[in-house]
Design a protein that fits this description.
The chain is mainly alpha-helical and about 170 residues long. The chain has helices at about 1-25, 25-45, 55-75, 90-110, 110-125, 130-135, 140-155. Helix 1 (about 1-25) runs antiparallel to helix 2 and helix 3 packs across helix 6 (about 130-135).
Length: about 170
Protein backbone atom coordinates (compact mmCIF):
# COMPACT_ATOMS: atom_id res chain seq x y z
CA UNK A 1 0.00 0.00 0.00
CA UNK A 2 2.80 2.45 0.86
CA UNK A 3 4.39 1.85 -2.54
CA UNK A 4 1.07 2.64 -4.23
CA UNK A 5 0.76 5.89 -2.27
CA UNK A 6 4.33 6.83 -3.19
CA UNK A 7 3.49 6.24 -6.85
CA UNK A 8 0.36 8.42 -6.51
CA UNK A 9 2.47 11.18 -4.95
CA UNK A 10 4.82 11.03 -7.94
CA UNK A 11 1.85 11.39 -10.29
CA UNK A 12 0.69 14.45 -8.33
CA UNK A 13 4.05 16.26 -8.58
CA UNK A 14 3.07 18.47 -11.56
CA UNK A 15 -0.08 19.64 -9.75
CA UNK A 16 1.83 20.23 -6.53
CA UNK A 17 4.42 22.24 -8.43
CA UNK A 18 1.73 24.38 -10.12
CA UNK A 19 0.11 25.07 -6.77
CA UNK A 20 3.47 25.89 -5.18
CA UNK A 21 4.38 28.15 -8.09
CA UNK A 22 1.07 29.93 -7.70
CA UNK A 23 1.75 30.51 -4.01
CA UNK A 24 5.40 31.52 -4.25
CA UNK A 25 5.63 33.10 -7.69
CA UNK A 26 9.07 31.54 -8.05
CA UNK A 27 10.05 28.31 -9.79
CA UNK A 28 13.01 27.70 -7.46
CA UNK A 29 10.98 28.35 -4.30
CA UNK A 30 8.16 26.19 -5.66
CA UNK A 31 10.55 23.27 -6.25
CA UNK A 32 11.91 23.59 -2.70
CA UNK A 33 8.39 23.76 -1.31
CA UNK A 34 7.25 20.67 -3.23
CA UNK A 35 10.32 18.76 -2.09
CA UNK A 36 9.64 19.71 1.53
CA UNK A 37 5.98 18.76 1.24
CA UNK A 38 6.82 15.38 -0.27
CA UNK A 39 9.40 14.68 2.43
CA UNK A 40 6.90 15.59 5.15
CA UNK A 41 4.16 13.51 3.49
CA UNK A 42 6.40 10.46 3.19
CA UNK A 43 7.45 10.76 6.85
CA UNK A 44 3.80 11.05 7.90
CA UNK A 45 2.33 8.62 5.40
CA UNK A 46 0.71 6.68 8.22
CA UNK A 47 -1.45 9.70 9.10
CA UNK A 48 -3.09 9.81 5.66
CA UNK A 49 -6.54 8.28 5.84
CA UNK A 50 -7.30 5.78 3.05
CA UNK A 51 -10.50 6.75 1.30
CA UNK A 52 -9.73 10.46 1.52
CA UNK A 53 -8.26 12.55 -1.27
CA UNK A 54 -4.50 12.27 -1.38
CA UNK A 55 -4.20 15.45 -3.46
CA UNK A 56 -6.07 17.51 -0.86
CA UNK A 57 -3.86 16.10 1.90
CA UNK A 58 -0.72 17.01 -0.06
CA UNK A 59 -2.01 20.49 -0.97
CA UNK A 60 -2.67 21.11 2.71
CA UNK A 61 0.83 19.98 3.71
CA UNK A 62 2.34 22.17 0.99
CA UNK A 63 0.28 25.20 2.03
CA UNK A 64 1.19 24.75 5.69
CA UNK A 65 4.88 24.58 4.80
CA UNK A 66 4.53 27.75 2.73
CA UNK A 67 2.84 29.60 5.59
CA UNK A 68 5.50 28.37 8.03
CA UNK A 69 8.23 29.58 5.68
CA UNK A 70 6.59 32.99 5.24
CA UNK A 71 6.32 33.38 8.98
CA UNK A 72 9.94 32.36 9.45
CA UNK A 73 11.36 34.57 6.76
CA UNK A 74 8.75 37.35 6.78
CA UNK A 75 9.34 38.05 3.11
CA UNK A 76 7.17 39.38 0.34
CA UNK A 77 6.23 36.89 -2.33
CA UNK A 78 8.19 37.53 -5.51
CA UNK A 79 7.54 36.73 -9.13
CA UNK A 80 9.90 35.47 -11.78
CA UNK A 81 9.52 35.51 -15.52
CA UNK A 82 6.64 33.69 -17.16
CA UNK A 83 6.56 29.99 -17.87
CA UNK A 84 7.13 29.26 -21.55
CA UNK A 85 3.69 28.87 -23.13
CA UNK A 86 3.12 26.51 -26.03
CA UNK A 87 3.10 27.99 -29.49
CA UNK A 88 4.25 27.33 -33.00
CA UNK A 89 5.32 30.66 -34.41
CA UNK A 90 7.34 33.47 -32.90
CA UNK A 91 4.46 35.93 -32.82
CA UNK A 92 2.10 33.52 -31.06
CA UNK A 93 4.75 32.57 -28.52
CA UNK A 94 5.67 36.19 -27.86
CA UNK A 95 2.06 37.30 -27.43
CA UNK A 96 1.32 34.34 -25.18
CA UNK A 97 4.41 35.13 -23.04
CA UNK A 98 3.34 38.75 -22.70
CA UNK A 99 -0.24 37.81 -21.77
CA UNK A 100 0.87 35.08 -19.37
CA UNK A 101 3.41 37.41 -17.79
CA UNK A 102 0.74 40.06 -17.20
CA UNK A 103 -1.64 37.54 -15.65
CA UNK A 104 1.08 36.03 -13.42
CA UNK A 105 2.13 39.48 -12.23
CA UNK A 106 -1.46 40.38 -11.39
CA UNK A 107 -2.03 37.06 -9.61
CA UNK A 108 1.16 37.62 -7.58
CA UNK A 109 -0.24 41.02 -6.50
CA UNK A 110 -3.40 39.46 -5.04
CA UNK A 111 -3.56 39.00 -1.28
CA UNK A 112 -2.31 35.49 -0.35
CA UNK A 113 -5.75 34.25 0.74
CA UNK A 114 -7.27 35.20 -2.63
CA UNK A 115 -4.29 33.86 -4.57
CA UNK A 116 -4.49 30.44 -2.85
CA UNK A 117 -8.17 30.06 -3.64
CA UNK A 118 -7.70 31.19 -7.24
CA UNK A 119 -4.91 28.67 -7.80
CA UNK A 120 -6.76 25.78 -6.14
CA UNK A 121 -10.09 26.35 -7.90
CA UNK A 122 -9.11 27.81 -11.27
CA UNK A 123 -5.77 26.15 -11.93
CA UNK A 124 -5.94 22.93 -9.92
CA UNK A 125 -9.67 22.57 -10.64
CA UNK A 126 -10.63 21.65 -7.08
CA UNK A 127 -14.28 22.06 -6.17
CA UNK A 128 -15.21 24.72 -3.65
CA UNK A 129 -15.72 21.97 -1.06
CA UNK A 130 -12.29 20.48 -1.76
CA UNK A 131 -10.60 23.89 -1.61
CA UNK A 132 -12.42 24.61 1.66
CA UNK A 133 -11.07 21.36 3.08
CA UNK A 134 -7.51 22.16 1.96
CA UNK A 135 -7.64 25.67 3.44
CA UNK A 136 -9.79 24.69 6.46
CA UNK A 137 -12.33 27.46 5.86
CA UNK A 138 -16.09 27.43 5.11
CA UNK A 139 -17.25 27.08 1.50
CA UNK A 140 -18.76 30.57 1.67
CA UNK A 141 -15.31 31.96 2.44
CA UNK A 142 -13.93 30.17 -0.63
CA UNK A 143 -16.68 31.64 -2.78
CA UNK A 144 -16.19 35.19 -1.53
CA UNK A 145 -12.38 35.06 -1.78
CA UNK A 146 -12.61 33.66 -5.28
CA UNK A 147 -15.12 36.32 -6.33
CA UNK A 148 -12.89 39.08 -4.95
CA UNK A 149 -9.81 37.53 -6.60
CA UNK A 150 -11.55 37.31 -9.98
CA UNK A 151 -12.84 40.87 -9.71
CA UNK A 152 -9.43 42.23 -8.73
CA UNK A 153 -7.71 40.26 -11.48
CA UNK A 154 -10.22 41.37 -14.12
CA UNK A 155 -9.97 45.00 -12.99
CA UNK A 156 -6.17 44.96 -13.02
CA UNK A 157 -6.16 43.43 -16.50
CA UNK A 158 -8.73 45.95 -17.72
CA UNK A 159 -11.41 43.37 -18.43
CA UNK A 160 -15.03 42.94 -17.38
CA UNK A 161 -15.64 40.50 -14.51
CA UNK A 162 -17.36 38.00 -16.80
CA UNK A 163 -14.26 37.52 -18.89
CA UNK A 164 -11.78 37.17 -16.02
CA UNK A 165 -9.37 34.26 -16.40
CA UNK A 166 -10.86 31.18 -14.80
CA UNK A 167 -14.33 32.73 -14.53
CA UNK A 168 -17.07 30.15 -14.51
CA UNK A 169 -20.75 30.60 -14.90
CA UNK A 170 -21.94 27.88 -12.54
CA UNK A 171 -21.36 27.58 -8.84
CA UNK A 172 -19.45 24.39 -8.06
Amino acid sequence: MAADIRHQIILLLPRLRRFARGLTGSAAEADDLVQGACERALRAIGSWQPGTRLDSWLFRILRNLWIDDLRRRRIAVSSEGPIDPPGEDGRTVTEARIDLGRVRERIAELPPAQREVLVLVCIEDLSYREAAAVLDVPIGTIMSRLARARQALAASLGESGASAPGARGAVR
